[in-house]
Amino acid sequence: MKIDSSLKQHSLSLTDIIRQRITEENSISFADFMQMALYHPGYGYYSSGTHKFGKDGDFITSPELGELFAKCMAKQFSQVVNHIDDAVIVELGAGTGKFCFDCLVELERLNSLPNHYYILEVSADLQQRQQELMKNLPENLHQLVTWIQQPLAHEFNGVIFANEVIDALAVEVFKMEGNYQQMCVMWEDGFQPSWKEMPNELAEQLKSKDLVIADGYVSEFVPNLTAWLAAISEKLNHGITMFVDYGYERNAYYHPQRNQGTLVCHFQHQANFDYLENVGIQDITAFVDFTAVAEAGDECGFEIDGYCTQAHFLLSMGIEQMLGDSEDNYTNYYKNITEMKKLTMPNEMGEKFKVIALSKNFEEELLGFSFSNQLHLL
Ligand SMILES: C[S@@+](CC[C@H](N)C(=O)[O-])C[C@H]1O[C@@H](n2cnc3c(N)ncnc32)[C@H](O)[C@@H]1O
């Protein structure tokens, strides 16, 4: 892979910072390494000013393809906004802000604007980009958007939404060797993996998954997922939390054949597995165990309302009716058809991505799962 010199320098600076921490502590867990690689203020992949999204970046997400994804989600949100009082939307990890922009425009068209649209973004760089984009919204929509650094501290009703955020949370890497081993990172002419016995509290989290795996099996999990969900949803009284991400239900995630886990890096639209290299300039991500999300939801007092593939969800929301008129504007229609294919085809984003919805004091059947609801797989 070809890396220009300013990116190389950026990576070397972060390497020095992580190396310094390793020198002080001998080794650090992979989760701590990933947290620094992605979120170190100033040098972490998400915190720094590198491109990341779109064709000049490293990867492309559903909202970046066009407007259809946000339009479908807006239609789902409108069902919630119209059924409860004083609804707000809280989006976690808003990327470039495009989802928020398109969603608010569509919610206005549907006459279903929330009282507020909060963005909880951990990256200062992305927050700045989002703020720039939102300046192009009409004033009545712009004034609905508020950035927050912490989960809402007051009680609220409405929707919590995140697309491709759980896959960006730091994971622990484990190996089964009679008992659970934790991958740590040490320094020896570069970052190197080393293994030690998994600390008790994390081993307990793993054991509660009841995995049937052979010696030598390597995979990963998001530590303390329940605490994370509790923190963002504690003050939600009535409404839903919806996550969209690539991932599987537990049986498929920890399948015997997937014995090297799901960690992957993205650099300039190419995937690689060198997650201890090029720190700070490439994305590191892991697939999502949706059973773990459902369990965390259950522990946080949610009903688990829906689980299905992205394709089924978008079809339930009527994506094929949002393509425009081919005779009136063929260019736009063709662009939308291409986008719909990318979002729904099984070999593109249609099956790898799933949607899960959790609810609190919200009894309506969610429209997005009317075509298919596969809760039994979780
Ligand atoms: C892969 S990007 C997805 C961005 C956007 N949702 C999209 O679909 O284009 C991951 C996003 O999650 C944010 N993020 C990571 N951890 C987070 C956390 N704990 N809370 C809120 N946002 C987080 C990142 O800064 C980034 O904006």
Provide keyphrases for this structure.
24% strand, five-stranded antiparallel beta sheet, binds S-adenosylmethionine, globular, 35% helix, eight-stranded mixed beta sheet, Rossmann fold, 16 strands, alpha/beta, 378 residues
Radius of gyration: 21 Å
CATH topology: Rossmann fold
CATH architecture: 3-Layer(aba) Sandwich
- Report mean pLDDT, rounded to a whole number: 95
- The figure for the number of domains is 1
Number of strands: 16
Q: Uncertain regions: pLDDT < 50 for 5+ in a row?
A: none
Order of helices and strands: HEHHHEHEHHEEEEEHEHEHEEEEHEHHE
| Relative strand content | 15-25%
Report the helical percentage. Answer: 25-40%
User: Structural class, from secondary structure content?
Assistant: alpha/beta
Q: How far from one another are the termini?
A: 38 Å
**For the record, what CATH class applies?**
Alpha Beta
Bound molecules: S-adenosylmethionine
| Number of discrete helical segments | 13
Summarize the main sheet.
8 strands, mixed
Shape: globular
Question: How would you describe this structure to a colleague?
Answer:
With 378 residues, the chain is of the alpha/beta class. It has a single domain, classed as Rossmann fold. Helix content is 35%, strand content 24%. It has 13 helices and 16 strands. Strands 2, 3, 4, 5, 10, 14, 15 and 16 form an eight-stranded mixed sheet that branches. Strand 6 and strand 7 form a beta hairpin. The longest helix is centred in the N-terminal third of the chain and has 21 residues. It is globular. 45% of the residues are buried. The model has no long low-confidence stretch (mean pLDDT 95). Bound molecules: S-adenosylmethionine. The site of S-adenosylmethionine has 19 residues, from helix 3.
